[in-house]
Amino acid sequence: MTKDYLHEDICYRDIHRDGKPYYQHENGNPCDPDLLHLFSWASFPSKEKKILELGCGDGFVTITLASMGLSVTGVDCSPVAIHHAEKNLKEAGFTAALHTGDACKLDFVQPQSQCYILDSHCLHCITDYKDRARFLTQSRRVLSSKGTLFLATMGEQPMEWTKTIELSPWQQKLGISYAVDEKGCYVQSLIPPGTSVRVNSRVFIKEEVLREEINNAGFETVRFERFAPKNDPGNITFLVELIKSTVS
135 and 126 in contact (C-beta within 8 Å)? Predict the structure, then answer.
């Protein structure tokens, strides 16, 4: 895990002191609506297929994938998150191969060994554009020649939406705020518990910026969908299905 993303581990550690999962899910549903919609696509892998989940966090999405009959390998930069993912999977009665690792390197994954890869809300946590390029390049490296990469990443939001977000007490403690980066995308920042340095934690990517990143990494877009929950139309996620481009 690079030092630039150590704040994820600090945040996981802090909130787990209160016995809570990092991400709160309504009605006990372990998956956000955008991911559930993605999983309904006919092209998404079915029972007994293998999938590499990038950014598995506490393992709640991992549990959903395993409950679908998929064989999951999960990776997350946070050792604390992986510890709790193992615990949550065991309590739910499921298994998965979990790794503490860097999704921008994937040095434990063999080239062209993965038929399916899922960005499980990981890419929008990578706010440095060079690191984002590494994430996509490494995903392409480990993807098989006929494999598929699915992205679920926060999309561009109007600034009015960021001002209406109701922050939880824990989020308020982090001092979450929003600004515009060099590419014109909104970026969320916070001050990790026990520190005094503000760090960028999420990027709300513009569609044209994401499409450029995809093309530069050598992918071809099969499907690109803008998703927002009915009860929160400003909360946009880009759901994308990618294959390796054959154009040199």
Answer: yes
CB-based contact 188:165 (threshold 8 Å): no
Burial 164-196 (b: 16+ CB within 10 A, else e): eeeeeebeeebebebeebeeebbbbbbbbeeee
60 contacts 21 by C-beta, under 8 angstroms: yes
φ, ψ of residue 53 to 5 degrees: the values are -100, 115
Structure confidence by residue, pLDDT tens digits, 228-248: 988 888 889 999 999 999 875
| Cα Rg of the chain (Å, integer) | 17
- This prediction's pTM: 0.93
Residue 150 pairs in a beta bridge with: 118, 241
Determine the topology of domain 3-156+204-243 in CATH.
Rossmann fold (3.40.50)
User: How would you write 84-152 as a 3-class SS string?
Assistant: HHHHHHHHHCCCCEEEECCCCCCCCCCCCCEEEEEEECCHHHCCCHHHHHHHHHHHHHHEEEEEEEEEE
Return the domain boundaries, the chain.
3-156+204-243
Q: What is the pLDDT of residues 123-166, one digit of tens each?
A: 999 999 999 999 999 999 999 999 999 999 999 876 676 677 77
